[in-house]
Write a structure and sequence with these properties.
This is RIIa domain-containing protein. This protein is mainly α. The protein contains 4 helices and no strands.
């Protein structure tokens, strides 16, 4: 269905615009609530642009794997100290 057909369907077009505005508001609220997201994305893009890997997907996998390794190390330290973790990288209360 092309845009002209959508625009001719007033009810469908209105529902589309309402949903679009709702999603935009939800996404903005999420990004605002998680300022670390902008830093993470910015750091990742800089990493890729500077290194210019041939395989961007593998580079992304390797880049984000380091965060998983850090989380696993934190959980191991917590367990060694006698703290239980809840599988999310945070200590269970």
């Amino acid at each position: 269905m092309d845009r002209e057909t959508w625009e001719d369907d007033q009810e469908g077009w209105s529902m589309y615009l309402d949903k679009k505005a709702e999603l935009k508001e939800e996404q903005h609220a999420y990004v605002t609530a998680h300022p670390e997201l902008k830093h993470l994305v910015s750091d990742f893009l800089q990493h890729i642009i500077v290194r210019k890997p041939d395989d961007v997907y593998q580079a992304a996998k390797d880049y984000f794997a380091q965060f998983r390794e850090d989380e696993d190390e934190d959980e191991a330290e917590d367990e060694a100290e006698g703290n239980e973790t809840n599988g999310t990288g945070t200590t269970a209360q």
